[in-house]
Amino acid sequence: MNYFYSKNISKDFIFLEGQEMIHCTTVLRKKVDDVVIVVDGLGGIFHCKILKIHSDKCDLKIINKDRLDRKQDIHLIISPTKNHKRIDWMIEKIVEIGIYRVTFMICSNSIRQKINLDRLNKIALSAMKQTQNAFLPIIDNCLPFSKIFDIVDSKEKYIAHLNNKDTIHLHSTIKGHKKRCILIGPEGDFTKEEVEYSINKGFEEVSLGISRLRTETSGIVAATILNL
Q1: Is residue 89 a contact partner of residue 113, using CB atoms and an 8 Å limit?
Q2: Cα(23)–Cα(40) distance, rounded to whole angstroms?
Q3: How many CB atoms neighbour CB 171 within 10 A?
Q4: Helix 117-130 and helix 84-97: axis angle, to 10°?
């Protein structure tokens, strides 16, 4: 069954608006008394019956609700790639895998300085619904490297880089904490100074394997490992 998304949720009722309402009533031709599933992006899953269809919204009655707990809070902090299509692809895949938050950072070797936040949020929403996932990640706009440490509240903190070939693989360093964060640098990798600064901020150096991965591939691999 198709999933729909809404933030307009009260104790007993949900209202679908905008594209969600159009998709429900026009594209899928749902009618009054049909049952649909709505998620709030925070783990809430609501089985609802359509009460009334207006020109600009759809009124739903909640008939059953459930709430899922997120197993891990994965915070991916990553430098945007030069090709924005690779960013789009990465966001889609890590939402499918499971991600709590994505923050884009500008490093010394970063080429791209901006992202299309609106487009990425739409991609994340679509991926959440298509994979019947109940969690919609937070996506932060670009921040300077020095500022990203102010928003990290994870217990486990890692930085993946290629400056040291003797670092331990990420899967061997994971501990038992729910909140986990990893830094992924740009195509030119982190500078030595950025790595040292991260270590001083409590981040642990890790490897993602012997292959030299693209930035967006590194993000997907890291999200997968941290969800294990």
Answers
A1: no
A2: 16
A3: 15
A4: 30
Structure tokens at 149: 């440490």
pLDDT classification of 210: cutoffs 50, 70, 90: confident
The angle at the Cα of 131, spanning 116 to 97, to the nearest 5 degrees, equals 70
SS3 54: coil
Distance of CA 55 to CAs 6, 15, 17, 31, 37, Å?
17, 12, 10, 13, 21
pTM of the model: 0.93
pLDDT in tens, 15-36: 999 999 999 999 999 999 999 9
Q: Which tokens hold the place of 164? A: 């040291």
68, 43 in Cβ contact below 8 A? yes
Of 86-90, 98-102, 186-190, 210-214, where does mean pLDDT reach its minimum?
A: 210-214
DSSP 113-174: ----HHHHHHHHHHHHHHTT--B--EEEEEEEGGGGGGG---SEEEEE-SS-TTPPBGGGT-
DSSP-based three-state secondary structure for 90: helix
Q: 10 Å Cβ neighbour count for 5?
A: 18
Q: Cα Rg for the chain, rounded, in angstroms? A: 20
